[in-house]
Write a structure and sequence with these properties.
Layout lengths: L1 E3 L1 H14 L6 E4 L3 H13 L3 E3 H6 L20 E9 L3 H11 L6 E9 L9 E5 L4 E3 L12 E3 L18 H9 L10 E9 L3 H10 L4 E7 L4 H7 L2 H12 L3 E4 L2 H11 L3 E3 L4 E3 L1 H20 L1 H28 L2
Parallel strand pairs: 1-7, 2-3, 2-4, 4-5, 5-6, 8-9, 8-11, 9-10, 11-12
Antiparallel strand pairs: 12-13
Helix pairs in contact: 1-2, 5-6, 8-9, 10-11
Length: 331
């Protein structure tokens, strides 16, 4: 599963700003996700921003008092219309048709941060090809792909209960009833997979219905009490078994510890929502292999390995400081 975070999107915006071959006077974002990409890009280019409707109406978004650049469409020669990603090109083509109805006195170019293998047909500029299956941090919980995802509840859709609330009794039922959602997905979730006990199904279903969270399946642990659930301690194993049985493409889990174990057991990708990190089974295998190699080398010759490790750390530290010094005082 290919994943891009907002942090990576910002890095891509910086890269695109450096690589654009022409002077861009204005960035226009395609709602909704394209507005995030456009905002990051215009900050890196130090130019104003608008959306597609604003472009058609000759309206710029307001900027801070410190900005001293283009302040009207009379100063604009080239506009970059940008989206976060282009897959089939349907949205970009629709935008081009909309803009073609206007006789603009400036040039328009089109760009995207990420494209599919065929996306280059629809844009003039892009940063990276991100193949399917793919998910982005900024639209993961609002993407039609949720239909084929497993999603944890506590720690994702709402916060975890406190120790006091998690009493397997009155306080816990009150938590299940009154806790506020952290996110309300706008797409149907394939499988909600939770370690909540089956006896709390009514409260859980009522809460989901009250907040408009749509799902196809709700899978809960069929155990009589919290004490037995904690004694068994097989939360990640249970989730991994459900994940494998569903044929889902991704599991969105709140806990990094559980996410790692689910990925290891299922040999399928898991996204840790709390850490905002995508875990792929191949990556975990490489980490384990490398860790085993280092432990073996340490066991065979601890003195030599320790000396080499120390030299590596020192050299990396010197290299990092050198780069920081150059970036601050260099040139």
């Amino acid at each position: 599963m290919n994943h891009r975070s907002i942090s990576q999107l910002n890095s891509s915006a910086r890269q695109l700003a450096r690589e654009l071959p022409t002077r861009i006077d204005l960035v226009a974002g395609i709602p909704r996700s394209g507005l995030l990409a456009a905002n990051l890009l215009c900050l890196n280019l130090d130019v104003p921003m608008t959306d597609i409707e604003g472009l058609c109406e000759g309206r710029l978004l307001q900027t801070g008092r410190r900005y001293d650049g283009v302040d009207s469409f009379e100063d604009v020669e080239t506009v970059l219309v940008v989206d976060d990603s282009v897959d089939t090109g349907r949205q970009m083509q629709e935008t081009k048709r909309q803009l073609a109805e206007h006789d603009f006195p400036f040039d328009i170019e089109y760009g995207a941060m990420y494209i599919s293998s065929q996306g280059h047909k629809h844009v003039d500029h892009w940063v990276d090809v991100v193949s399917k299956p793919r998910v982005f941090e900024w639209n993961m919980m609002h993407h039609p792909m949720l239909k084929n995802f497993c999603v944890d509840i506590d720690g994702v859709l709402c916060r975890d209960p406190t120790r006091e609330e998690n009493d397997d009794g009155r306080r816990y039922r009150e938590f299940l009833t009154t806790v506020e959602p952290r996110v309300v997905p706008t797409q149907t979730i394939g499988w909600l997979v939770t370690c909540r006990l089956e006896k709390y199904r009514d409260e859980t279903e009522a809460w989901l219905d009250r907040h408009g969270i749509e799902y196809d399946n709700l899978v809960m642990m069929d155990l009589p009490s919290k004490e037995i659930r904690q004694r068994d301690g097989n939360h990640a194993e249970y989730k991994a078994d459900v994940y494998c049985s569903t044929g889902a493409d991704l599991f969105i889990e709140s806990s990094m510890r559980q996410a790692t174990e689910i990925c290891e057991r299922s040999k399928k990708p898991v996204h840790c929502y709390g850490a905002n990190q995508m875990l792929n089974p191949g990556h975990l295998d490489r980490v384990y292999d490398k860790s085993g190699e280092y432990l073996s080398r340490l066991s065979d010759n601890p003195i030599s390995f320790s000396l080499k490790a120390s030299k590596y750390i020192l050299s990396e530290g010197y290299y990092t400081l050198s780069r920081l010094s150059y970036s601050r005082w260099g040139r």
